[in-house]
Amino acid sequence: MKKSIGIIFADDMEYKPFEEFAKQRGGETSELCGCNKITLKMENATIHAIESGIGKVNATIATCVLKEQCGVQMILNAGLSGAVSGLARGDVAAGESYVECDFDLRAFGYKQGQKPMGEYVYNADESLLSFALTIHGVKKAKLGTGDFFLADSAKKVEYSSEFSINAFDMESAAIAAACDKYKLPFLSVRKVSDDAEDGSIHDYREMNEKCESTLTEVLVKIIENI
């Protein structure tokens, strides 16, 4: 039986390479809750890919919509990230774990990032992660998320120390949290665009505007092996 797989991209430059790939293979474009969407039937899976918009709220909504309206059985995510530790610009990494770094109830005795009545470090699906790590050049990484673009050396050091993350983005942990509630297998694949320090916006924009197909190629290889 074919799998039904959801893919979430935050912005148009991350979404367009997959959209182009899908169109060349007969993918059908549509709109879902105000977002661009393309559906592609592959040999072993039906793919529902969506351009969610940037940030945790948009990513969470996209996850819920893909589950409730498209009936997906797993979620993949791909996009650009800033390097925090152990990664360099151009590296491609599959997230083994995800944490919302900007969630903060320390005033009530919780750890930074910790949520009441739930997990706060979410783990990737082991099978999806294993598939990703068989792809040449893909590294394993711990991912952190927050609703801001990380371009602050001091906060980068703080997050490295507190969470031992390797890269930072604006969506992955939010999707992981929603997938945890739905019991959906999840994996995020990220390409490092910048060093998450002062002045990193230029590096991010430079890579984002190239609209590269690297992440699409990795996602397709994962899907073909599911």
Structure overview:
- The chain is α/β, with parallel strands linked by helices.
- It has one domain: Rossmann fold (3-Layer(aba) Sandwich), CATH 3.40.50.1580.
- The chain has seven helices and ten strands.
- It has a five-stranded mixed β-barrel, surrounded by five helices.
- Helix 2 runs parallel beside helix 5.
- The mean pLDDT is 96.
Unreliable residue stretches: none
Number of strands: 10
How are the strands of the biggest sheet laid out side by side? Answer: 5-9-8-6-10
Helix/strand structural class: alpha/beta
Provide the descriptors you would attach to this structure in a database record.
globular, Rossmann fold, alpha/beta, 226 residues
Describe, in short, the structure shown.
The protein has 226 residues and is an alpha/beta fold. 35% of the residues lie in helices and 30% in strands.
Task: Write the topology of this structure.
Layout: E1 3-9, H1 12-23, E2 28-32, E3 35-41, E4 45-51, H2 56-70, E5 74-83, E6 92-100, E7 121-123, H3 126-133, E8 138-145, H4 153-163, E9 167-169, H5 172-182, E10 186-194, H6 200-210, H7 214-224
Parallel strand pairs: 1-4, 1-5, 5-10, 6-8, 8-9
Antiparallel strand pairs: 2-3, 3-4, 5-9, 6-7, 6-10
Helix pairs in contact: 2-5
